[in-house]
Automatic annotation (TrEMBL):
<feature type="domain" description="Tyr recombinase">
    <location>
        <begin position="1"/>
        <end position="86"/>
    </location>
</feature>
<dbReference type="InterPro" id="IPR002104">
    <property type="entry name" value="Integrase_catalytic"/>
</dbReference>
<dbReference type="InterPro" id="IPR011010">
    <property type="entry name" value="DNA_brk_join_enz"/>
</dbReference>
<dbReference type="GO" id="GO:0003677">
    <property type="term" value="F:DNA binding"/>
</dbReference>
<dbReference type="GO" id="GO:0015074">
    <property type="term" value="P:DNA integration"/>
</dbReference>
<dbReference type="Pfam" id="PF00589">
    <property type="entry name" value="Phage_integrase"/>
</dbReference>
<keyword id="KW-0233">DNA recombination</keyword>
<dbReference type="GO" id="GO:0006310">
    <property type="term" value="P:DNA recombination"/>
</dbReference>
<protein>
    <recommendedName>
        <fullName>Tyr recombinase domain-containing protein</fullName>
    </recommendedName>
</protein>
<dbReference type="InterPro" id="IPR013762">
    <property type="entry name" value="Integrase-like_cat_sf"/>
</dbReference>
Length: 92
């Protein structure tokens, strides 16, 4: 058990989600930004891919059963495609 309440009882997943959302709102983060455990997980996956982590290693780290599920976390966005096109053309 990772998180406990004042009575040393485990917090429910719903309680943790609610607290994280509340902290997100009170932190002044833009309303357009989702602050949730799932958003943290997506961000972790995305940053690991951008850092060059092997996709199979990432699958193991996240515990995803299939690459299809993991792909949902690391969608390719327009900026990724632009960066891939420009890669190798710097200074030309």
């Amino acid at each position: 058990m990772l998180f406990v309440n004042v009575e040393n009882q485990p917090l429910s997943a719903r309680s943790i989600q609610a607290e994280i959302r509340r902290y997100g709102k009170s932190s002044g983060v833009s309303e357009s930004v989702t602050v949730s455990p799932h958003a943290f997980r997506r961000t972790f996956c995305r940053l690991k891919v951008e850092a060059g982590t092997n996709i199979f290693v990432l699958q193991r780290l996240t515990g995803h059963q299939s690459l299809e599920i993991l792909k949902r976390y690391v969608e390719i966005y327009g900026r990724d495609l632009e960066a891939a096109i420009e890669m190798g053309f710097e200074g030309n």
